Automatic annotation (TrEMBL):
Annotated keywords: Membrane, Transmembrane, Transmembrane helix
Protein name (record): Integral membrane protein
Transmembrane segment boundaries: 32-52, 64-86, 92-112
Length: 119
């Protein structure tokens, strides 16, 4: 799920660049600057998700931070922006990933001594 979240961030970055190149300029934000932010954050989250799929422990920290940051975003989408159809699924996925990151099997894997040193 973390890799999917990162991939979605990268897709948003591409869409923002395409919109800016097509002449859709926002008065309040820079499409290119926002795209760069989404590319950096989305790329990091995507890398963390890939690390988790390859058994690397460092991906867990990236995933944990991404989910913690997504919860207030979901809350704002639900309450402040009037977009509960987007906010509720974001909240459900973030909470589900958090539960999975702290599941007993995940903690056992995290504390295992038989992983290679670069994990």
């Amino acid at each position: 799920m973390t890799a999917v979240q990162g991939a979605l961030g990268l897709i948003v970055a591409v869409v923002l660049v395409i919109r800016e190149m097509a002449g859709h300029h926002e008065a309040a934000i820079s499409g290119y600057g926002t795209a760069a932010w989404f590319a950096a954050i989305g790329g990091g989250v995507f890398a963390g998700g890939l690390a988790l799929t390859r058994g690397r422990r460092w991906g867990r920290g990236v995933s944990l931070m991404a989910q913690i940051l997504l919860l207030p975003v979901a809350y704002t989408l639900i309450t402040g922006s009037g977009l509960p159809l987007i906010g509720v699924p974001v909240a459900i996925v973030a909470l589900a990933v958090l539960v999975l990151l702290f599941a007993p099997a995940s903690l056992t894997w995290l504390n295992a001594d038989d992983l290679p040193p670069d994990a």
